[in-house]
Structure formats: structure tokens, C-alpha cells
Amino acid sequence: xxFAEIDFSFVASPFVSSLVLCFGLAALIWVLSIVTREYSxxxxxxxxxxxxxxxxxxxxxxxxxxxxxxxxxxxxxxSVRLTYNFVRKGGYAxxxxxxxxxxxQERMGPVLFQVxxxxxxxxxxxxxxxxxxSPIFQAWRINEVPLGLLDFVVAGIFLMFFVGETVADEQxxxxxxxxxxxxxxxxxxxxxxxxxxxxxxxxxxxxxCDMGLWGTFYFFGVIATGEWLHWSGLGFIALxxxxxxxxxxxxxxxxxxxxxxxxxxxxxxxxVPTPWRRRPSSDT
Length: 284
Description:
The protein is mainly α. It has helices spanning 13-36, 41-46, 49-60, 66-88, 99-108, 110-133, 135-141, 149-184, 205-225, 233-257, 261-267.
């Protein structure tokens, strides 16, 4: 199917309602960023909005579409875990802004950053969130195909990536908490960034698993429609571009803070593990 040939025959309540909500939230997030001068409002919405969009679809079908129900249950699991992880890091607390926004403002300057804010930070990212959740509209539109073995295979792969992301975030959380305790006690921290666990094989295993998770989610729409290519796949592509685009900024900050980070970069893949490459030693 040509991506330009979007079937608007299914432009009905769940599609339109979720899209209107998306644009409304984008406007609210932009206003909040201006009023509070904090730009992590989009980060606070990131884990919640996909579930809201799925619940709109579930409500529309009256909980009678098993595939839509399964997709929503998986996203609920993802949403609860990611929100919990963000809460415990202080992301919802006043002043809990992601440190990268400050760095971005300093590098871009106030005028260019506000251009970025009104185009990408709020509306752009909110639309991407709606877009990578959009395979559920394909399952809503085509409900003649019954839930089957392929759906459970896809669900199993989704859960595999979910577990990987959970483990990666938990390993990072424990490392950072231990690091804070050591610093508070006046102890030296030999390796100030995580190189063990999943981070031994990938510098960003949580990003890798999140991309894999949403790429897997797309295949529910494939099963429902029988179409390998359809417009809802653009969400997964856009999500990957956001992650890949944010990595250089994150790593430039780490490299400027930690002299040994360049060695870690040289010995550990940025995303996809390559077992044949030399891995960092414990004295990175």
C-alpha cells in the first residue's frame, strides 16, 4: 500500500477524538512550558498519552475487539512501568526537568530554542506519540480477522522487549542510587557511568528495547489488515529518528563530563549489540 493512499473511510470517533486530544495536549504542553519555563512537560506526557489513545479506541468498540483489548493491555503495562520509572527519578516534581533541555537551550540560544519549542518540542513530539500508537486504529478499522496465534507471537516479542527495557532502567536506577550514596559518603567513584549488565553490550539498551517494542506493536496492524506497509508505520520511523537524534546530545554531555566515556564508546555499540566486538573492561 502506498503511504500516500491513506484510507480516510475510518475517520470516525476514536481516530478523530484521539487526534483532537493530541493537538489539545500539544497546545497545553506548549503553554505550560512558556509559563513555567520548564520543557519536560512533554516527557511527563510521553508515557501516559499512548494509553489514553488506546483507551479511546477500546471504549469505542465497547471492549468487544479482542485484538484492540490485547494491544491496550500491553500498552497499559508499558505505560505504568515507564510512568513509575519517571516518578521515582523525580520527573513529575517541580524542577524535575531533563538536564538535556538546559544544554539544548544554551547551545541553540533563546530565540532558536523557542522556535524548536513551538514546532517540535510540544506539537511535533505529541504528534509522533499519537503516530506510533496508531497501529491500534488499524486493528479497530479491520475487526473481521480473529485473534490468533500470530497475535500472541507478536505479544510475546513485545513482552521480551518490555522486559529488556525494564531490566535496563532498573540497572541504571540502581547504579545511579549507589553512585549518589558513594558521593555522599565522600567515596571515590572509579567508573561514573554504567558499563555492566545490559550496558556492557549496548550503550543505550533501553532505547533499543523501546524501539523494538513499538516496532513490534506495528505488526498487530499488519495482522489485522494483511498489509505489510501502511501509514501507521511512520510512527515507528519517527520514534527511531527521535531516539537516534537525541543520542549524540546525550553522549556529548557524558563525554564532556567523563574522560573515560570515549573508551566506552569505542568498545561498546551505541544500540545493537555486536558480540564479536571487544567489550569494555571493568576499569573503563
